[in-house]
Design goal:
By secondary structure, the protein is mostly helical. The chain has 19 helices and 9 strands. α1 links the parallel β1 and β2.
Length: about 525
């Protein structure tokens, strides 16, 4: 039996948070479905209303018409039942790598929450089966590539629709298996999707929004980690902590910038007496760290608003207002808010990579590191000439930074007219979200490199007799020392960098409240 560490997540009328999607993606919470009579009745009204329209031979996009530019093609009633299967079948053309397990769980959760708004015309049975996929960890194999993010994530979400119907493949208990086989093993009957249900599953922003939830969480932690790394580097470089004085930041009161400065004051015990300074003003990568990181800190609230509004929205087309007996044709599948959020995040994250890369460049350069050995080598004098410490690590960090900066080009401005010019302005939100995760991956690598180098720098100061290390910095170094011993004689650091990355992605170190 699965043991859950977090509170259950209830899908239904109440909004969900980014954090709830993320705990589901990590299998740390149970997925439940609102199940009171009033809610079930609200959900069931949609498909009942659609049935009355079919009885009257009403015209409904994607139900009695073809899809996209084929909306002008009428589908006779005797073919309506076959239309959903054709939709997910012809969209089975995704390419690229498969979404990982956490991303796939997030996709299922985000799509379920959208359909739970009650205006998509789907049955309660469909919601229950989506929840069951989460509960039993039945994960559709979803290719990453093939969505332009405006008629929703049609191609990747077709893999969700198909596997609910017992087609294509899933990951179950660590094995790739046919969806039909897993349904049989669990005693389930594959769904036969009713009119509008395949469209409701596919015609939405679930993939980009799911990836945005995962990216947001990583960015939040990266912000705090970059602040802690900066504090370590101020100590390692014997910088001036007065640059983070509270009175200074009161004069330019961006809240996020003030928060980063406050975290640095906390780490550096700024009220304590300071040692004589090497420079009156540190170089910008130290002195302006709150100004660089503060932009991310101040932007995360807006990005959260965009992501959580999308998460808790009905974003397929058409919407079914069963109460007023109306079918509302629109464009809520357009992922512009997620595209903007993720393009913005790429810019913010790229600047963090650049900041940490510049700090690392100061650390390894004996012209600027105020007495530390060249390349932070801990080798004794008899072997110093053949040891190179962190030289190659800094080269690697420079490469990762360059790629993150190159990746900051916005995806949303590269709209392509597709599908016979029906989708003639598209969001590219899914590409933006994938790019943002790649930028985070690269920047976490820069952070790992700079963190290990900063740890080495502080160790070198301690070795050389420095005793006035602020307590929070000393505590962080103590935590790091268990996994990352000092580099004295050269050794290959790949394994330690990979372990550090695992620690970062697991959000292992408790940073600031």
């Amino acid at each position: 039996m699965t043991t859950y560490l977090a509170e259950p997540v209830v899908f239904g009328e109440q909004p969900l948070s980014i954090e709830q999607i993320n705990v589901l993606s990590q299998r740390r919470a149970q997925a439940l479905l609102q199940d009171d009579a009033a809610y079930r009745e609200m959900i069931d009204k949609g498909p009942r209303f659609l049935d009355t329209l079919l009885d009257k031979e009403g015209v409904i996009y994607g139900v009695t018409t073809g899809y996209g530019d084929s909306c002008v093609v009428a589908v006779p009633l005797h073919q309506v039942e076959a239309l959903p299967r054709h939709l997910y079948t012809f969209h089975g053309c995704g390419l690229g790598r498969l979404l990982d397990e956490a991303s796939t769980r997030a996709v299922l959760a985000v799509r379920l929450q959208s359909l739970c708004q009650g205006v998509s015309g789907v049955r309660m049975e469909l919601l229950e089966r989506l929840r069951a996929f989460l509960a039993h960890d039945v994960l559709p194999l979803i290719p990453e590539e093939g969505s332009v993010g405006a008629s929703g994530d049609l191609t990747p979400l077709s893999y969700v629709a198909a596997t609910l119907s017992g087609e294509r493949e899933v990951l179950y208990r660590g094995e790739q298996r046919s969806a039909a086989e897993v349904h049989a093993e669990l005693g389930w009957t594959p769904l036969t999707l009713r009119p509008k249900e395949a469209l409701a599953l596919m015609n939405g922003t679930a993939v980009m929004t799911a990836l945005a939830c995962l990216a947001f969480s990583r960015a939040e932690y990266l912000l705090k980690l970059a602040t802690r790394i900066t504090a370590l580097n101020v100590v390692a470089l014997e910088g001036n902590p007065e640059h983070f004085d509270e009175r200074l930041f009161a004069a330019k009161p961006h809240p996020g910038q003030m928060q980063v400065a406050a975290w640095l004051r906390q780490d550096l015990a700024i009220d304590a007496p300071t040692a004589p300074l090497h420079r009156l003003q540190d170089r910008y990568s130290l002195r302006c760290a709150p100004h660089v990181l503060g932009v991310m800190a101040d932007s995360l609230g807006l990005l959260r608003q965009f992501i959580e509004t999308e998460l808790n929205s009905a974003n397929d087309n058409p919407l079914i207002d069963a109460e007023a007996e109306r079918v509302l044709h629109g464009g809520h599948f357009y992922g512009g808010h997620i595209a903007f959020a993720m393009d913005s995040l790429k810019n913010l994250v790229g600047n963090v990579a650049d900041l940490l890369d510049r700090q690392l460049a100061l650390l390894v350069d004996s012209r600027y590191n105020h007495g530390l050995p060249s390349n932070l080598s801990g080798a004794p004098s008899v072997s110093a000439m053949i040891n190179h410490g962190f030289k190659a690590v800094q080269i690697g960090a420079s490469a990762w930074t360059a790629e993150a900066l190159k990746n900051s080009m916005p995806a949303s401005v590269f709209s392509r007219s597709t599908e016979c010019h029906n989708q003639d302005k598209v969001s590219m939100g899914t590409i933006a979200a994938r790019d943002a995760l790649r930028s985070l991956e690269l920047t976490e690598q820069v952070a790992a490199a700079t963190l290990l180098a900063a740890n080495q720098g502080v160790w070198l100061r301690l070795r050389d007799g420095k005793s006035d290390i602020p307590a929070p910095v000393a505590a962080m170094r103590e935590q790091l020392s268990a996994d990352f011993p000092p580099v004295i004689e050269d050794r290959a650091l790949e394994g330690e960098l990979r372990l550090c990355l695992t620690r970062i992605r697991d959000q292992h170190w408790r940073l600031y409240a």
